[in-house]
Amino acid sequence: MESLADTTWDVIIAGTGLSQSLLALALSRSGKKVLQLDQNPHYGGPDAAFSLDEAQEWVTGVNQHPGRSPFEDAKIFTYQHLPDSPRSPPSQNDSEGSEPLAGTPDIRPKLAASRTYTLSLSPYFLYTRSALISILISSKVYRQLEFVALGSWWIHTGTQAADANESGATSIFHRVPGNREDVFADTHISMKSKRTLMRFLRHISKSPDDAERDSAEELLVPFSEYLSSKFSVPGDLLHALHSLSLSQRSAQDTPAEYAVPRVQRHLSSIGSMGPGFGGVVSKYGGASEILQVACRACAVGGGAVALAIGIEYLEDEGSVNEEHPVQVQLTTGESVRSKVVVGSVWDLPGQEQSPPSAQVARSISIVSSNFASLLPITTEGQPLPASTILMFPGDTLSHPQSPPVYLQINSSDTGDCPRQQSVIYGSVALPGPEGHTLLECAVDRLLRAEGPQAMILWSMRYTQSGRFGNDGSPATIHKHSDHVYSFPPSSLDLSWEDEVVDMVKEAWTKIVGDEEDHDDFMIFEDREGTSDD
């Protein structure tokens, strides 16, 4: 095998997260010699997805090497379910269960083989009007991907529904209306509240050039104040509208300038790719599958990808070596040179970094239920949803001062798990044990409402560092020297944020300079034999 040191590289990219992998693809198609490294033995960094065995290896690595990644305090729990005791307490890293009595069939739900699961560390979805979808189409990468529809939003009400027709999980959740028809068909909302809600929806649907659109000053207030003062939105609708923004802070702590554009994005996305849905999930691990397709396409374009190889240190010697100014010492002992080095904040040792601005507690739970009642078809012609979003306001979990808890349920149609099971991804902007307790409480409420057949078979909890889209500081590429750049900490938001595509284009533009028309970013011609015809 040819040594990496035998080639002088145009660009070395540290990390295989989605941002780095998209950049590597763009640069390789611009004729650059690209070397993409990852200190981990797997693809993805913070966007990785794992089988059960790989998840166990990852947890061990996180806890043995603190500070080497944006993750900490990772734990895995397995559960023993006796036939007469469907909800037994978890056992950390205990994979042994009690055996059934001799001569009786073992009807307890069980985990399937390790590789039948694809569990994502960052399971964000894509709105159908996302900039990422646009570049996946223009680059032809979409041909190697499969997407499934995201379904409804649900709000935890904290009380059991009085409607006898509602059973299972829908008995404690209220579906958030997504359009005019939903609003007037909703039996939980009073007629007065429906008129108020329609007035708000009409207002935020106005074009950017409309004179009645909000001024910048009107949006410099909390979202809760904006809704109550400008539209007299009643309290029972506040949580529903707040959930559409996907803000992980409370409505009182979420600026209207953050929430309003995201509610607009949510509503405008519905129907843009088909009736009844506004978001999609990439099958087989979400972002992990997208980035691996990008890495393979980079290799086809002449790039090289090497796992389990990191950067020991680097030095910009521009004053001495103008052609390939950056010397990079690899963890293998090899020394390579490059014109430019780009990486994540976790993959460039010795470089001054801006610390992550936020932390969240996250959980992944494999459950023995398909939650069919939460994945309804609500519009004629709508594809069957494979994923749905649940929001638990803090006050419905007996923690009024706490931020909301979000659960994303992925059915087996996402490829995350076998049939008749689901994967529940949880997130709350409260790190450590306090956040994990809230996540556990939310998942337990959901399972108790769904019924005794819904049991946790396996779960993982961890804390992740990064940044929120509403932290007040724009995400930009950081310049360490004339030839060394880094991406900021990963977004902790629940949907893909378009600013990430902007950052990838910014990095690409800095590197290619005037060699390429910047309007041609990620617009690729068909390679021979790969057209749709």
TrEMBL record:
Organism, as annotated: Penicillium steckii
Region (Disordered): 82-107
Family membership noted in the UniProt record: Belongs to the Rab GDI family.
InterPro entries: FAD/NAD-bd_sf (IPR036188), GDP_dissociation_inhibitor (IPR018203), Mrs6 (IPR017230)
Organism classification: Eukaryota, Fungi, Dikarya, Ascomycota, Pezizomycotina
Protein name: Rab proteins geranylgeranyltransferase
GO cellular component, one term: Rab-protein geranylgeranyltransferase complex
GO biological process, one term: vesicle-mediated transport
Gene Ontology terms for molecular function: GDP-dissociation inhibitor activity
A Pfam family matched in the record: GDI
Coiled-coil stretches noted in the UniProt entry, renumbered to this chain: none
Domain of life (superkingdom): Eukaryota
